[in-house]
Design brief:
This is Copine C-terminal domain-containing protein. InterPro entries: Copine_C, E3_ligase/Copine_domain. One of its GO terms (molecular function) is ubiquitin-protein transferase activity. The chain is of the alpha/beta class and 222 residues long. Strands 3-2-1-4-5-6-7 form a seven-stranded mixed beta sheet, with helices on both faces. It has a single domain, classed as 3-Layer(aba) Sandwich (Rossmann fold). The chain is built from six helices and seven strands.
């Protein structure tokens, strides 16, 4: 199942539960895996490489474009939090906001996400450490504690998680289940550059206190 179809299917489930008002959050990978993965794709260019003419979209731009078409109906509050992680400047246990002047307000539209990505990405130095989703999920959980309602976190990732970070990512999800106000519709991890969802973590509802359902189900797409 391709990325767009998979996301549309998941959104259909949210729609059937009247969750069109879910708060959207995005996180984007800025590790050097974007260079190594590009050796066999995207003509060997960094997956974040931006065409000055705008004629060729990189995998992240294409993903944001497709996701925007599918998820626009969930953006009813005109506030989409977008963060980056894994870059050389940001500490390993933190993320950086695409809207540092007012992080909690986020971007007002998918067009603004696109423009912020286009403006920020050339200024960001990729980090050498492998991607770690634990801090990303914890940041999203902290945001969810401040904003009641249901939340959808979509992580755009350049490569598989290293084994050393799998346990931490899983533990971050379980820890989030302990907060009664943190209710999630979806946590999606979308793999670049082929824009296929190789790993989808679905957290149906973090109201489960014991964490047994927190890891939800795993679906592959190819």
């Amino acid at each position: 199942m391709g990325m767009a179809r998979m996301v549309a299917k998941r959104c259909g489930c949210c729609r059937s539960m009247n969750l069109e008002s879910s708060n959207l959050m995005f996180a984007i990978d800025y590790t050097t895996a974007n260079l190594t993965c590009a050796e066999h794709s995207f003509d060997g260019k960094c997956l974040h490489s931006i065409d000055p003419s705008g004629g060729i979209l990189n995998p992240y731009q294409e993903a944001l474009t497709r996701l925007g078409r599918v998820l626009v109906e969930f953006d009813d509050d005109r506030s989409i939090q977008v963060s980056g992680f894994g870059d050389a400047k940001t500490p390993e246990n933190a993320v950086f906001s695409f809207t540092p002047e007012n992080p909690m307000d986020g971007c007002k539209s998918f067009n603004e996400i696109w423009q912020r990505y286009h403006d920020l990405t050339p200024t960001i130095e990729l980090g050498e450490k492998s991607a770690n989703l634990g801090p990303v999920i914890r940041h999203a959980t902290a945001v969810a504690r401040e904003v009641t309602g249901f939340h959808m976190l979509i992580i755009l990732l350049s490569s598989h998680l290293a084994n050393e970070h799998l346990v931490e990512a899983a533990q971050a999800i379980v820890d989030a289940s302990k907060f009664p106000l943190c209710r999630w519709t979806n946590l999606m991890v979308l793999m670049m550059p082929r824009m296929l969802n190789l790993l989808l973590l679905v957290t149906s509802d973090y109201r489960d206190r014991d964490g047994r359902r927190s890891l939800g189900q795993y679906e592959g797409a190819g």
